[in-house]
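seq as requested:
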Amino acid sequence: MVTKAVIKELYKKFKEPPEDVSMLNLSYFMDLLKEHHPMRIDGGEIVVENVDEYSPFRRMLVKRLTGVMEFNKYVAFVMQEHILFFEKRGKGVLLHLIPTKKKSCIKKIFNCFGIKKD
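struct tokens:
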């Protein structure tokens, strides 16, 4: 089951892309998902064939992937800003986005003048 704790652990475990793309074992995961989520690698991108052509999640840059992990019902494609969870036995896709931190009014004012205030 994908819980908040699992999501937090995925971001923690996969902070940076691996040194070698082969460490992601993409061919295994693409083969595992091919029945419901046909994918192909095209010039450094993973293209999810059954996602709308204009969707921002149709293409994923391989170099942006920090990890791929298999769960009972999902396969998670982890990137630094978001995670795509593809159902293994269905066409469902879940998306988790890291929420952006809101800047205070004072920080916005300092940023306007190029002053870094932490």
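DSSP finds three helices and seven strands in the chain.
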